[in-house]
Design goal:
Layout lengths: L1 H6 L6 E7 L2 E6 L4 E4 L6 H4 L4 E4 L2 E3 L4 E5 L8 E5 L4 E4 L4 H25 L5 H11 L6 E2 L4 E5 L3 H14 L4 E5 L2 H8 L7 E5 H4 L2 H11 L8 E6 L5 H8 L3 E5 L3 H18 L5 E2 L4
Parallel strand pairs: 10-11, 10-12, 12-13, 13-14
Antiparallel strand pairs: 1-2, 1-5, 2-3, 4-5, 6-7, 7-8, 9-15
Helix pairs in contact: 5-10, 6-8
């Protein structure tokens, strides 16, 4: 029992647990595993923040990078962890996974707001330390941007995106652009956003031109850029990736499908991904 308590005393270091019969493997973020002679159900009481995604697996939601809903009846969904491990999610446990991610998102949003409040009023001594350690004048360094720029001409999709950010990422703001040219003109003189969304389906290949401009400029190419295309777009997926897109989302164009995709995209880029420090583009 003492050995078990020692193993699970560091839940933040545990990515997931897998079980078979009366044995459980505990998997740590550094790749280490420990075999314990207890069934997986035993650990649900001691790791209440973990999610039982399947009869053979429990997951630490902090390490979930991507989720895939069940594609059809009687087939499982899946979760992909930050270390690349893919685990099944049974259909009846799917709501538990989405609820856990929603709770995690709300918690992280609250913590971010508190951190921002605590960091106000930083003195000149800290600014001097930043300059000394980075070699960059402190006025040119800001925390990662919390803005999302979107090139979308569909009013319903624009409203959905705005609602999602207001509800789940209230510390973020969104700015819409009618075309790729106006996006480039605006972004060239301001702090880079945390994320750019380009809907090629509604703005046409002008959006692809904007993507090309973003990735050509060494000051802008690190901005995460997600492109939406039609799922009947032939080789457009290859073209977008070759141009520098970080992700390409192929969809039918339904608003519900768009809403689900945007939630997952923001979940990854605004919660899990490490974003570059923003540097003034006017320097």
């Amino acid at each position: 029992m003492k050995h078990i308590n020692e193993v699970i005393s560091r839940p933040s270091q545990i990515t997931h647990l897998t079980g078979a019969s009366n044995y459980t493997w505990v998997h740590f973020r550094d790749g280490a595993t420990v075999l314990l002679s207890k069934p997986l159900s035993y650990f649900e009481e001691y790791l209440p923040d973990f999610v039982r995604v399947h009869k053979v697996a429990m997951v630490n939601p902090h390490y979930i990078q991507q989720i895939q809903s069940p594609p059809r009846a009687k087939t499982p969904g899946s979760v992909t962890l930050q270390n690349g491990v893919v685990l099944p999610v049974s259909r009846r446990r799917w709501p538990d996974v989405t609820d856990a991610l929603d709770r995690l998102t709300r918690l992280e949003n609250s913590e971010f707001t508190q951190l921002a409040n605590n960091q106000r009023g930083v003195g000149e001594s800290l600014r001097g330390r930043v300059e000394q350690e980075t070699g960059v004048p402190s006025q040119l360094i800001t925390p990662p941007s919390r803005q999302v720029y979107a090139v979308i001409k569909d009013d319903v999709k624009s409203l959905l995106l705005q609602q999602i950010l207001q509800e789940k990422w209230p510390q973020c703001t969104v700015r819409f652009f009618a075309n790729g040219s106006s996006l480039i003109d605006h972004i060239a003189l301001r702090e880079p956003p945390a994320l750019v969304l380009l809907d090629i389906r509604t703005v046409g290949w002008n959006g692809l031109n904007a993507l090309e401009e973003l990735k050509r400029d060494k000051r802008l190419r690190a901005i995460p850029t997600v492109v939406f295309i039609s799922n009947q777009s032939g080789n457009d997926v290859e073209v977008c990736y070759a141009t520098g897109a970080n992700s390409v989302i192929s969809q039918t164009g339904s608003h519900e499908e768009f809403k689900n995709a945007v939630e997952r995209i923001c979940q990854y880029w605004l919660n899990f991904a490490a974003l570059p420090i923003a540097r003034s583009l006017r320097a």
